[in-house]
Amino acid sequence: MTKRLESLTKTIQFIPLTNGKTLLMYKGYTFNKNQSLAIGYRYNCAAWTSKKCRAYVNISEDKTQVINSKDFHTHPPTVYRALASGFYFKVC
Q1: pTM, entire model
Q2: What's the rounded Cα separation, in Å, for the pair 41 and 62?
Q3: Which CATH architecture has domain 3-90?
Q4: Average of per-residue pLDDT values in the chain
Q5: CB under 8 Å to 90, separation ≥6 — which residues?
Q6: In the chain, where the domains are located
Q7: What would the 3-class secondary structure string for the chain be?
Q8: How far apart are CA 73 and CA 82, in angstroms?
């Protein structure tokens, strides 16, 4: 049984995927960890390469809050569904 991920809030959520990777979800969009910063971490949009989307999120070192972000995306958000195991998979 699956359920739709409700993630259009302004909170940071880390979602584990069935392939072993973990993505950051923010405002309904997913991001990959890019680099460590002096103040935390930078995550780039998961469509950085494929859709040339330059959105990013900088989060605190303890990974609990957004420090700043550029959240204009060139594409709609990707839909993920959660499995009973707690892992997520991409729907579209």
Answers
A1: 0.82
A2: 9
A3: Single Sheet (2.20)
A4: 87
A5: 17, 78, 79, 80
A6: 3-90
A7: CCEECCCCCCCCEEEEECCCCEEEEECCEEEEEEEECCCEEEEEECCCCCCCCCCEEEEECCCCCEEEEECCCCCCCCCEEECCCCCEEECC
A8: 23
